[in-house]
# Entry
Amino acid sequence: MKTFKIIISSIALLVCISTVSLAQSKSQKNARMKSLVDSRSFIFKPESATPMSGGNIRLTSSYYEVRFLDDSLSSFLPYFGTAYRAQYGSTDSPLTFTSSDFSYETKTSSRGGQTVIVKLNKPSDPATLTLSISPSGYGTLQVNSVNRQPISFYGTVEPVEKNKN
# Structure
């Protein structure tokens, strides 16, 4: 009976220790994502796209990204969906652009995630990009446009790599 009590108490102790370490790692992930978003220097790498008019589309290229760099924003994303008005003769994706004229706002969710809201002034279309980031580093980018159907991307948020010279 005495060994049974020792075994039960040691199992309870292990459960408590693992719970504490899990909570600490979760708070570390929250702090890491918050500092990444606050630095305004990170990359969103999409893995799939979900247009309003269709199902989930897996993106096979590793070149697609939205790069947030302090005072500039560059986007290289595909577009799948209906355009209500398109530029004549253009073959470029409407989500391929670079801008330094935008507003950047962040919010923290109750579960520790981060939301980044970017309102573009130039180019004027797309109008807003809303990136919801979980503490584990996964994100959903919602692109709202004036002239096109909305589209969402699911992927990961990573820090910007420093040049290796």
Notes: The beta strands are 41-51, 57-58, 65-69, 72-76, 96-99, 101-108, 114-122, 128-133, 138-144, 151-159. The mean pLDDT is 80.
